[in-house]
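Kindly go through the following sequence and its backbone structure tokens. Advise at your convenience whether the structure tokens fit the sequence:

___
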Amino acid sequence: MSDWLIAIILGLVEGLTEFLPVSSTGHLILFGDLLGFTGEAEEKFKVIIQLGAILSVIVLYWRRFAGLSSGLARDLLRKDAWLQPGLEGVRGLAKLALASLPALLVGFLFRHQIKDYLFSPTPVLVAFAVGAIAILIVDREPKEGSDKSIETISLKQSLAIGCVQCFALWPGMSRSASTIVGGMLVGLSRGAAAEFSFLVAVPVLSAAAFHELLDAMQLFSAHEVAVLSVGFVVSFLSATLAVKAFIRVVSRWSLRPFAWYRLLVVLVFCVGYVLSGN
């Protein structure tokens, strides 16, 4: 299979799954293994194309990100600004920081162990199943369990969501699923939890992607950079469509279909590995 086709496939996989509670990293590992796309350069490729998905959120939620900077100078003059409600200025940045720091810290401290022991098909499939069970337990009702919006989130709730997000460091658990489940556990509506997960994704995923980008600058040839660019663009376009559709779905229905999908993935790949003799 050509590098260009692999880039398109993985770009689609990344974009369509990054912000859904189904684990983009888990899908990339499984599809990469299926396509024979493995190795150090390939692993960096999978991380870097996440930047395309991240850009889609920045574009779609540009007003929200602009709000984080609006009134920043004014807030800095208020001693209690970071305690105020809402998700703008200092208080918004503080809440996103608290929701991002736990995963960034744990990911940095245990990055080698995570890559050595969890970045393979078997741990990923186990994580798919565990994440599915968690979704089915937390999202038992088909309708909204709370009407709290993203504007009501507190510093304590942000930190709690950040701690739950650490489970996403296990490939297959899903950063989006962990953050949404964490948000629902602290009382946010399903839609608000999903939107907050999109916003938190930007600092967390950007840190990982830019780290890999700087580390890989000398690793890719001109041809590989071109292929990487194709994956980036495909990831951006497909993520834009996926985010819009996902918000409509979770606002009206539940996350349970995504849990059943995760279990179906486990079943399909397990049967596939058995039939292939792996």
Notes: The first helix runs from residue 3 to 17. The chain has a mean pLDDT of 82. DSSP finds 14 helices and no strands in the chain. Residues 26 and 128 are 8 Å apart (CA to CA).
